[in-house]
Amino acid sequence: MEILNTKGSQILFGQDAYIALGQKLNEKQYSKLFIITDSNCNELCIPYFLSNLPTEIPFEIIEIEAGEEYKTLQTAEGVIQAMLDLGGDRKSVIVTVGGGVVTDLGGFVASIFMRGIDCYNVPTTLLAMVDASVGGKTGVDSAGIKNCIGTFSMPKIVVIDVNYLETLPVNQLKSGYAEMLKHGLIFDKKYFDHLKDIANVDFADIETLVMHSVIIKNEVVDNDPKEKGLRKILNFGHTVGHAIESYFLLSDKKEAILHGEAIAAGMVIEAYLSKELLGLSTKDYNEVKACVFNIYDRLDFDQSDISDILEWLKFDKKNENGVIKCVLLKEIGEATYDIVIDKVLIAKAFEEYLK
């Protein structure tokens, strides 16, 4: 078992992590264990999880619907009501078993139930392993606006067991891979160079890759846990990507896309902005673009789509006083934050994306 100690949390890698998780749960003598999961994971992951969890604490499974559209206050209230009905109290504990929606929502519920109870994360998707379950951000969406209601609340332990990845379809794996590419682009050029040609990546050693991404994210978060400065670089691709994701989720003209698919498009568009505003080399820009389009389908936008997506940008949490601010690349492996951008240039970046 590999252990990564963070400020206020531990990240454990491998099957032996369940022994440590069980020991911690038993040591804390919780009154009741609430396992928060979704309809997919309840079928595919919960039996494996329960077979590996050494604890006699009485537990209840609370299942939510799968999908970003269910990451809402209404769902959170439903979970809280279920916990109350099932005898939850201040000595209860939540263990999330699922992807990013489950870890975000379950962590949020834990942070507010009875003014806060302990939470442990067991991510089951690649996206949740390298991003959502680590770093203490919790939250739900409102009116399609990503994570606009939430808290900073660190899980006590995160268990990363890559065996869960065997339950995932290819599109979900690719969604998580976008965040791994982002980690290389903002912090570690050698890592990006290793990942960019996906045909040459040895996925038999996926745990090592996941661990590298988690180490990068953890180093950034430990230096800036409340996102006052450096942690903002983890949002590369997300200013535009979240706007795209929200638009596709709520538009009658589009089908919802996965988070990583939107972020991949956002990284290409924001790489173009980096070239125009920070002097990112044409070589680096073309490298980012080639990498993304080698792995992800190009999203289709018409002029009306672009205009509507630009309107979603005003909801980005990095904005101040109505000014759109973005994370951009100086070069591959180095990012900076709080760069002011305007909608005219973003619209041009969309046009470049479509070429």
Describe the protein's topology.
Blueprint: E1 2-6, E2 9-13, H1 17-28, E3 32-38, H2 39-44, H3 46-52, E4 59-64, H4 73-85, E5 92-98, H5 100-112, E6 118-123, H6 126-132, E7 137-142, E8 145-152, E9 157-160, H7 170-187, H8 189-196, H9 206-223, H10 238-250, H11 259-278, H12 282-295, H13 303-312, E10 325-331, E11 334-340, H14 343-354
Parallel strand pairs: 2-9, 3-4, 3-5, 5-6, 6-9
Antiparallel strand pairs: 1-2, 7-8, 10-11
Describe this structure in words.
This protein has 355 residues and is of the alpha/beta class. 48% of the residues lie in helices and 19% in strands. The chain has 14 helices and eleven strands. The protein has helices at 17-28, 39-44, 46-52, 73-85, 100-112, 126-132, 170-187, 189-196, 206-223, 238-250, 259-278, 282-295, 303-312, 343-354; strands at residues 2-6, 9-13, 32-38, 59-64, 92-98, 118-123, 137-142, 145-152, 157-160, 325-331, 334-340. It has a seven-stranded mixed sheet, with helices on both faces. Strands 7-8 form a two-stranded antiparallel sheet. α10 (238-250) packs across α11 and α10 crosses α13. The longest helix is centred in the last third of the chain and has 20 residues, at 259-278. It is globular. The mean pLDDT is 96.
